[in-house]
Write a structure and sequence with these properties.
By secondary structure, the chain is of the alpha/beta class. 32% of the residues lie in helices and 29% in strands. The protein folds into two domains: 121 residues, NAD(P)-binding Rossmann-like Domain (Rossmann fold), CATH 3.40.50.720; 176 residues, Dihydrodipicolinate Reductase, domain 2. It has a nine-stranded mixed sheet. Helix 1 packs across helix 8, helix 4 packs parallel to helix 5 and helix 7 packs across helix 9. It is globular and about 60 Å long. The mean pLDDT is 95.
């Protein structure tokens, strides 16, 4: 019997990001894109033709029923993530789900439990954590180059001159809002840098069309550490973080997606005014993400490490939403769960 060497992928939906991830699947050494599904068979056929994909399905259920498919990528609106992740898991499919993982942490936990029950993998589609640059930055954090950790500051924004009311980002019923769309990346960066969950959080936001249009947050951690971030749809493009310690700070001005994909960079600034620029070339983070997840699907039992960061991120998101609603600081327990 011939051993299948590449993971066979399907895509549920034809959203704009599906093209980018679809190309990454085709570029990955251990993956192959073989199917796409849409609620419209015509749309699915057109997408498959435009992107050179063999099979097109007129419903998501039809793709999930295809025994040739090993893994699916879900770029649907956040309000649909839990439903279709659980359905995919029940059909024995591994799931790479676009961020935010879900609308609430309870949904995220249900998704994780469904995948564990069916012994399939689950991971959110945060690409930057898979970049070679991220590994290098973490190495410098962990080896003490910054001294004792004190502060992380992050931001992710872009500007709409006019609100596109038909865009899922500003539709509450689809899980829209700047926190899930942009702040999710900042929270992940903060948790990654500190390798910890906050003990308290506070947030304030401005709302448009009943979703958080911009948001500012403060997070407190044990060990004299703090973090803050802002996100929104009303400020020019910013996608940077600073990680500050007692001896130096690390600055990355494009952590979500490198300004120049062929050469990613970051800086170390020291207290004496000296700085050093680091450059990492030849890494496509979306391809690395696909290769990482595809390898995990071939390694057997459910790997909770793939999803724990996403669930921790969702815990913080829920706590920040609660803070906005109550206009108060929210305490979290040792597992990062709002009290």
């Amino acid at each position: 019997m011939m051993v299948k060497t590449k993971v066979q992928w399907g895509v549920l939906g034809t959203a704009g990001i599906a093209k980018k991830v679809g190309e990454a699947i085709k570029m990955a050494e251990n993956a192959e894109l073989v199917a796409v599904a849409s609620r419209s068979k015509t749309r699915a056929k057109q997408w498959s033709k435009n992107n050179q994909v063999e099979h097109a399905y007129g419903s998501y259920d039809e793709l999930l029923a295809d025994p040739r498919i090993d893994a699916v990528y879900i770029p649907l609106p956040p309000s649909m993530h839990a439903e279709w992740t659980i359905k995919a898991a029940d059909q024995g499919k591994h799931v790479l789900c676009e961020k935010p993982l879900s609308v609430t942490v309870d949904e995220a936990i249900a998704m994780s439990n469904a995948c564990k029950t069916n012994q399939v993998q689950l991971m959110d589609g945060v690409m930057w954590v898979h970049h070679d640059r991220t590994s290098k930055m973490l190495e410098l954090i962990e080896n003490g180059s910054l001294g004792e950790m004190r502060r992380v500051t992050a931001t992710f924004t872009f500007n709409w001159d006019q609100i596109p009311y038909d865009n899922i980002r500003v539709r509450k019923e689809l899980g829209g809002g700047s926190l899930g769309d942009l702040g999710y990346y900042c929270i992940r960066a903060i948790l990654w840098a500190f390798n910890d969950c906050p003990t308290r959080v506070f947030a304030t936001a401005r709302y448009e069309n009943d979703v958080d249009y911009n948001l500012t947050a403060i997070l407190w951690f044990d060990g004299q550490r703090m973090a803050s971030f802002d996100c929104g749809f009303d400020t020019g493009m910013r996608k940077w973080f600073e990680i500050a310690g007692t001896q130096a700070s690390l600055i990355c001005d494009d952590f979500t997606v490198p300004w120049k994909p062929e050469t990613a960079r970051f800086w170390i600034h020291r207290a004496n005014g000296k700085d050093m620029e680091h450059r990492i070339s030849g890494c496509a983070q979306e391809v690395k993400m696909i290769e990482c997840f595809s390898a995990a699907t071939q390694n057997g039992a459910f790997n909770s490490k793939l999803i724990v960061d996403a669930i921790n991120t969702m815990n913080v998101c829920d706590a920040l939403k609660k803070s906005i609603e109550l206009n108060q600081v929210i305490d979290l327990n040792k597992k990062g769960i709002p009290i």
